[in-house]
Every structure is written in C-alpha cells, then in structure tokens.
Design brief:
heterodimer, A: mainly alpha, elongated, disordered N terminus, B: mainly alpha, 12 helices, about 0% strand
Chain lengths: ~90, ~375
C-alpha cells in the first residue's frame, strides 16, 4: 500500500528548512565571539591601567583575537553564502 | 497603442516598486542601529543605500525566478505584471503610511497572484508553490529568527557581566555597524533582484530578449539605483516602529537582533529557502526584547504587524485584481496608461497624507 502524500510534503523543502535552522543558531556563536572581543579588550585595558603586568594583558588580547577571528570568519561565510545562494 | 508603450510603463512602474521596496525596508537593516545611536540616522541610511546598491551586483542567480513555482509562467503577460506591481506598490505605501513593517516580496507575489487569477482564472496559480514558498516561510521565518535572537541576546548580556557597562555598550555598537551592513548588503542582493526579475520577465514576454537571455546590464543598474535611492530616502515611520516602538533596544539587543537576522537571511538564501527580510528582522527584534527581560515587548503593536503580514497577500492581490480588471475593461494600451496615471495619483495622495504628520530623521 502506498504512503499518503501530503501537499505540504511536496511543496516544502523540509531538509533545507532543517539545515537552515541549524545554521541560524550559529548567530549565537557570533554574538558570543563578539562578547569575547569586548571582554578581552576590557581586560587588557584594565591590566594596562592597573599595571598588572604583561600576562594579564596578553590573556585579554588573546581572548579578543580569538573572538575577532571567529567574527571575521563568520563575515566571510556570510559573504560566500550571498555569492553562492540558491534561492 | 503599441506594446512598446506598455513595456515602458511596466518598466517604470517596476522601478517605482523597487524604490518603495527600498524605503520600506531601510528599517530592516538600520532601525536598531539608529535606535541605539550606533549610527546617526542620516549616516545609517546613506550606508544602507550604498550597500543595497552594491548588493544588487553580487549575484544574479535568482533574477528571473520571482514568480517561478507560484504563477504559471504561460499566464504572465505585461498586463499581469503591471497590475501585480501596482497592487504591491499600493500595499507598500499603505503600510508605510501606517508605519507597519510588511514584506514587499509578499506584496509583489500577492499582486501577481491576484492579477493572474483575474486574467486567466485559478488554474494560473500553483497552490503548492504559494504554500511552500510564501505561506510557510512567512510563518517560520519570524519564529526562527525570534528564537535565535532570544538566546543570542541572553548570551550578549551574559558576556557583559564582568565588563564595565560603557565598554560593553560601545563594543556592541561597533558590532551593530557590521551586522547591519551585512543585512543591507544581503537585502540589496535579494530584493533588487526581484525588480530585475520582473523587468527581465517583461522583456521576455514582450519579445525584446530571448527566454534564456542574461539580465541586461542596464536592468541591473536601474534596479540597483532605484532600491539604493529608495533606501536613502529612508522610511522613517517604519524605522521608528521597529527601532523604538516594538521594544526598547539597547546595543547588545540590537547586535543580537541584527546578527540573528543576518544569519537567518543568509542561511535561507544559501539553502534555497525563500524568506522575507522584514519578517526575519521583525521576529529578531521581538526576540531581542524577550531575551533581555520577558514582557519587554509591545504585544499590541506586534499583533498589528502580524495582522498586516496576514493581510499582505490578499490585499495586494485584491488591488491587483481590480487593476487587472480595469486594464482589460479599457483595452490593453489605454487601460495601462489610465491605470498607471491613477496609481501615480494614489501614490501622491498617500505621500501627501503622510506629510500631514511627517516623521523625519529627527524623530527616530
């Protein structure tokens, strides 16, 4: 016996919708990465002001750099998605 | 009256639609950046206009598929395109006057459906395409963007716990400029192409270019210029609604909303799932309000916006159906001229009504 086919199943690209929803949650990682930049810059600047030494400032800068790399990568991916879009 | 004149009218009205699309959707990218003072209002619309213009040149992949899978292509005529465009413009101007963000894409699709239905009957409409490409995305997109924005806003505020308030807000203001710019660029890529699609379709229907011809360069330039100019004019009424009235937006919320919106928008483009920028960004702004503190959203206004979304397709379709009937009643050429002039008068009247209580850059 054949399975009933619903109009919605023919019309809606369920797989694309699922993939899209997964990728959309990447926004949370981007916001987190921006948060890392802010925390890193703030720590580095406080360490410099309080003369806490290089290690603390370096930690802040590293954190900010990590966040910046993630954000730049996300921007690049966004641009690639724009150029290679399929809809 | 020659078909050349009808073609010229269709192209002019299509560019008029593109212009309204621009100023109607400026808010999508820039409302939150203006609300948090990440950018001054005039600078924000200038930046958005430039990026919308640039975005129109990035990809031409979908320029000829605006009605694909929704209206049977054999039923598309210059009259149908003209009536559909007028229906969309009237709805865009009406919602602009009311300060409600609504989808220009849905207005255009509604217009084409209404016009084709009147011209050739319901067989001209592909119901499954309307469901899969318009109705379901219209429901899914604001919910998806809203849920992502709720979590993103929560994360943004968590990150700021150990940072001086001013450092955090300044940092997210810079981030907002980047995320809003990405939304503007993506908007230009998606929305300018709809007009390119309509004009190219008109040229194909008229026989000026072949079925598989590339989008002519002058069409790309004209569409990019119209949407850029419209964006620069700035739909201040809608910017005020999205940036100030829907929820009170702070820089972490603005960044979370725009980043969520941009990600959902670009993911949908990449995976071939057609979503409306307006629906996505509106959903994300509501989500950013909920993510900070529950009930920080004006639900009455959100309900009115949702109602406008529900009505967009039938309302634009109804206007287009009336226009289509008018054109066929008066005869193709004469009808097009008369209806075109009437549409121009109606647009001027709506603008004049808007000027009685103007909303400007100083009000946002």
């Amino acid at each position: 016996m054949s399975q009933p086919t619903f109009v919605a199943d023919q019309a809606i690209k369920w797989a694309a919708l699922g993939e899209e929803a997964l990728v959309a949650f990447g926004a949370i990682a981007i916001v987190g990465a921006a948060g890392l930049i802010i925390i890193g810059v703030s720590r580095a600047s406080s360490a410099r002001q309080d003369a806490q030494g290089g290690a603390s400032a370096l930690g802040g800068v590293s954190l900010a750099l990590l966040g910046a790399v993630i954000c730049v990568a996300a921007l690049a991916l966004g641009f690639i998605a724009m150029v290679h879009k399929s809809s | 009256m020659g078909s050349e004149l009808l073609l010229i009218i269709v192209i002019a009205v299509a560019l008029g639609f593109d212009f309204t699309n621009g100023f109607h959707d400026t808010a999508n990218a820039m409302a939150t950046s203006i609300a948090t003072r990440a950018l001054r209002p005039k600078l924000a619309v200038l930046l958005s206009a430039a990026l919308n213009f640039a975005g129109a040149f990035i990809s031409l992949k979908v320029a000829t598929t605006i009605s694909k899978g929704i209206v049977d292509s054999s039923h598309i005529s210059l009259n149908v395109l003209l009536a559909g465009l007028i229906g969309a413009i009237v709805w865009n101007l009406t919602t602009w006057f009311l300060g409600l963000p609504s989808s220009s894409t849905h207005a255009l699709i509604g217009g084409l459906i209404g016009a084709a239905w009147v011209a050739d009957g319901p067989s001209a409409i592909q119901g499954s395409g309307v469901l899969g490409k318009v109705i379901l995305p219209g429901v899914v997109s604001p919910i998806l963007a809203g849920v992502v924005a709720i979590v993103a806003t929560f994360v943004a505020y968590r990150c700021l716990r150990r940072v001086p308030d001013e450092h955090g807000k300044r940092g997210f203001r810079y981030g907002q400029i980047a995320s809003a710019s990405l939304v503007s660029l993506a908007h230009g890529t998606n929305d300018a192409q709809k007009t390119m699609g309509v004009i190219t379709l008109a040229l194909v229907v008229h026989g000026s270019i072949g079925q598989n011809a590339a989008v002519p360069t002058w069409v790309v330039l004209a569409a990019a210029s119209a949407i850029g100019l419209g964006t620069y004019i700035g739909g201040w009424r809608i910017i005020r609604t999205m940036g100030q009235r829907l929820t009170r937006v702070e820089p972490p919320q603005g960044f979370a909303a725009e980043t969520s919106g941009a990600t959902v928008l670009l993911a949908s483009s990449y995976f071939g799932y057609p979503l409306s920028t307006t629906h996505i960004v509106s959903g994300a702004i509501v989500g950013s309000g909920l993510g900070k503190r529950l009930a920080d959203v004006r639900w009455g206004l959100a309900g009115r916006i949702a109602l406008a979304w529900l009505v967009t397709l039938p309302a634009a379709g109804l206007v287009a159906a009336l226009v289509s009937r008018g054109i066929s009643g008066l005869g193709s050429g004469t009808g097009a001229v008369v209806v075109g002039l009437l549409a121009l008068l109606l647009a001027a009247a709506l603008f004049a009504m808007g000027q009685r209580r103007p909303v400007t850059a100083q009000d946002v």
